[in-house]
Amino acid sequence: MLVLRPGPVGDDLDAVTPALTGAFAAAREALEAGRPVAVVLDAGDLLGQGSPLDAAVATGLVGMVRTLGIEGAKPGWRVNVVAGGEGDEAAVEETVAMLAGSSLTGQLLTVGGANLGKVVP
User: Fold this and answer.
1) Which of 12, 44, 55, 91 is the S-S candidate for 111 at Cβ 3.0 to 4.6 Å?
2) How many angstroms separate the CA atoms of 63 and 58, rounded?
3) Helices H / strands E in the chain, number of each
4) Does the pLDDT of residue 115 top 60, yes or no?
């Protein structure tokens, strides 16, 4: 299983394109080789609690995963997002491990309490 953990880009606009392009290339290569992919994101970035560029990368990666899940349905690609907040590392790792043997694809799985009481996109 390939686990992608993009780092924060902060306020570096020039880091957004390489972050998205690199994740796409790595995911596509793994999927074509028959390996499942999990993209691990900070739930706060999906809620817009970090920098705007980190939110853009996170939501772009969710869109990528959903598209690859649809496009890869016939060949059986398995690609998902796991999002967690601070202190949720164990739950994130457990969920990633579960996905290694799962048939789920194109899904956003949020673990922990980072999104409790908040509207999730």
Assistant:
1) 91
2) 9
3) 4, 4
4) no
Q: What angle do CA 81, 36, 34 make, to 5 degrees?
A: 150
Determine whether 84 is exposed, middle or buried from the number of CB atoms within 10 Å of its CB (0-12, 13-18, 19+).
buried
Within 1-121, strands assigned E span: 2-4, 37-42, 79-84, 108-110
Q: Which residues are within 8 A (CB) of 17 and not within 5 positions of it... i.e. 6 or more apart?
A: none
Higher pLDDT residue, 115 or 31? Answer: 31
Token digits for 41? 């994101």
Q: Closest by alpha carbon to 27, among 103, 75, 91, 78?
A: 78
User: Dihedrals φ, ψ of 55, to 5°?
Assistant: -65, -40
CB 53, CB 13: distance < 8 Å: yes
Report which secondary-structure segment, H or E, holds 77: none
Cα separation values, 119 from 47, 56, 78, 81, 115, Å? 8, 17, 27, 18, 7
- Rounded mean pLDDT, 4-26: 97
